[in-house]
Structure prediction request, 750 residues.
Amino acid sequence: MTTVRDPLDRVFGAKTAKALNEAFGLQTAGDLLRHYPRRYATRGELTELSSLREGEHVTVLAKVALAQRRPNGNRRGERLEVTVTDGTARLTLTFFHRVYFHQKILRPEAVGLFAGTVSSFRGRRQLIHPDCEMLPETSGPGVAAEIAADYATELIPVYPASAKIASWQISKAVQTVLDTLDVGEDPLPPELRERYGLGGLAESIRAIHRPLDVDDYRAARERLKWDEAFVLQAALAQRRLAAAAMPATPRPRVPGALAEAFDARLPFRLTDGQRAAGETISADLACAYPMHRLLQGEVGSGKTVIAVRAMLQVVDAGGQAALLAPTEVLAQQHYRSISAMLGPLGQAGQLSGAEHATRVALLTGSQGVAARRSALTDVFTGDAGIVIGTHALLEEHVRFSDLGLIVIDEQHRFGVEQRDALREKAPGGRPHVLVMTATPIPRTVAMTVYGDLEVSTLTELPAGRSPIATHVVPAADRPRFLARAWERVREEAGRGRQAYVVCPRVGGTGPGDPDDEPAGADAPGPDDADGASGGAGSAPGALAGRRPPLAVLDVAPMLEQGPLAGLRVAILHGRMPSDDKERVMRAFTEGNVDVLVATTVIEVGVDVPNATVMVVLDADRFGVSQLHQLRGRVGRGSAEGLCLLVTETEPGSPARERLDAVAATGDGFSLSRLDLEQRREGDVLGAAQAGRRSSLKLLSLLADEELIGKAREEAAAVVAGDPELARHQGLSAAIGDLLGPQRAEFLDKT
Ligand code: ADP
Ligand code: MG
Prediction:
C-alpha cells in the first residue's frame, strides 16, 4: 500500500524519484498525485504542430507519415528521418542511434507521443532523438474490437514534463502509485460532498489522471478544487479560533475622554463607511482577545482618521498605540498630520495641552541622538500614548510601557517577521492589530492570502473629493502631446498649484542599482526600475532593445532647462539621505516647490492637497495597481486632479491596453482584478507568502471566487463545531499535509 506521505524513493527506484524531485520538486506520493496533467490528448486530435516554437520542450501527439534511412554526410553510418504530421503541418524526428529499432516502431500511420526540444535544420523544425511512446494499434489484424474502441476515445494525460523526465514516464509513475494507493480518510465531510455533488477522493484522483471522458475529468477537477479551497480555509478558520483564544487587554471606549474630544474637533463629517468601520474596530478593541483586522480603502478614503480614533480609544483606556509606516517620508508625514489633527489633545505637558492630553512620539532610524533619546523615554514611561515610526520601532531597545494597539500602514511593505517583532513588544498579552492598505485586494485574495484577518472595506470617498481625469499621452507617435503635457504643468503652476513628475528609475549610478525603496505590492520583485514593476504585460522580449527607463536624476535637469524653465523643481527618491528627503517634502508641502520629480517613493500616503497634476513618464513600466496608487496623490484636494500617463508603447499593444484601462476606470478594485488576471497568480501569492510555493494547483483566485466563498463558510462551520477536528481526521491530516510545517508557521505569523 502506498500513502500520500510516502517518499517517492520508497515507491520507485532512486533514479525516478530523483528525476521527479529535480524537475518539479516532487518528494512524496501526494506531491506526485498533485502534479496534474496540463491537458489531455485524444487519439483523434493530434497536436497542432504549426504552433511549436524553437527552443521549447514539447510533448506532441502525432502520426507518422514517412520514415527514411539516410546516409550521414561526412559521418559514418545512417540516420533515420521520420516525418510526423498532425494532418496539416509536419515535424521531423531525427535519430542517429538505434536506427533500426526506431524504424521498427515508427511505422507509417502509427500514432505516438514524442517529446523533445524543438530545433531547426535547414528551415524545418525537428526533434533530435525525441523520447517516443507509441500508442497501441487500434486497427489491423489481431486487435480486438473492444480494445480498439477503448483507445480511440481514451484521453491521454499530458503532464508538465522536462528534458529529464517525459510526460508518459510521469504518467507511468502516477499509475504505479494509483495501483497501490490508499488515500486515507476523505478530508471533505460526506455530508458536504453530498450537498455539492462532489465525488470521493480516491475516485477523483484516479479520474483526473485517467479520465474516462471529459465529464469524468471535469467532475474530478471540481472536487479537487474543493480540497484546495476547503483545507486552506479550515486551516485559516482554526487560526482565527486560536487567535481568539489568546488573551489581550480589552480597551473599551471611555466616555468623555480623548476620542470624543477628537471627534468634536474634526473639521468634517465622517462618511458612513468610516463610521461603520470605526464602530467595528471600537468593538474589536473592547474584546479580551486580539483584533486582527485589515482595513482597506481607496487612496484618500480616510483610513488615517479611523486609525487615529482607534489609537485614542486605546490611549483613553490606559494603553499605548504604535503606528508603523513603511518609509521615513511617510512616518514623518503621519507625525506632522496626526499632531496637527490632535492639536492640544496631543500636547500633554505643554501649556497648550488639553485635559487628558497625550503625547505623540516619532521614532525613525535617522533622527538625532537627543530627539531619539527623548522619544524613547516618552515611549518607555508611557507619556507618549501614540508612537509613530518606521522599522526603528522594531529595534530591541525600544520599550513600551503598555502597548495595546499596532496600526500598520500599507501592509504590503512589511514583512511577516517585522509584524511579529512588534507584537513581542507587548509581553502582557497580544496587542490588537489593525492593518491598513490602499492597494485594493480582490475578495478572493483577501480570503486566502489574508484569510485569518477580518476585513473592513471603505467603499466611498469623502464628499467633495473631485475625480481624477487620467489620459494616456502617446509620446512616440504624437510628440506634440508631450509638449502639451508640460504646458498643462505650467498652467497649473501659474494658478499656484503643484505637480508631480514620476519616473521609474533614480538614475545616476546606473540602471542595475536597486534603490532602497521597497518594491510596491504589485511589483514582482526588485528590478532596475526603482519600485516600478515593469512586470505585468511587458513581455521580456518587448523590453529588449529598448532604451533604459527614464530616471529622476536625468529628467529633472532636462525639465528645468527645457519645458519647465523658471519653475521651482525639486527631486525626491529613496537614495537621498532622510534629512534631505524630509526637507524636500516639507518644501513641497509648504508650497515652496512647484514640481516634484520623484520615484514611486510618493506612491503611498503622501498627502499634498494643492498638488493637482501628475505626469508619469514611461508609465508602461509600472503595474496597473501601482499607477492607480500613484494618481491618488493628485486627488487629495477639492480641485480636479489630472494624471497623464506618458508612454512610447504602440497603440493596441498589451502594455498600452493596460494604460488605457487605468485611464478608463477609477475603480481600484476592478484594476486590481486586472492586475491579477495579467500576472501569474503565483506572483500575487508569492509576494504575500514570502516566496513560498503555492499550495493552490487547480484553484484560480479569479475564476473560483464563488467556490472559495462557499468553502470558507463551510470550513468555518466545521471548525466551529469541532475546533480540534477530532471528528474530522481526514481534514486534520490534509491540513498537516497540504500546509506542511513551513506554511503552518507562516499562517501562525500572519
Ligand atoms: P487614506 O485612506 O488614503 O489614508 P487619509 O486618511 O489620508 O486617506 O485621508 C485623506 C484626506 O481626506 C485627509 O486630508 C483627511 O483629513 C481627509 N478626510 C478624511 N475623512 C474625511 C471626511 N469624512 N470628509 C472630508 N475629508 C476627509
Ligand atoms: Mg494613508
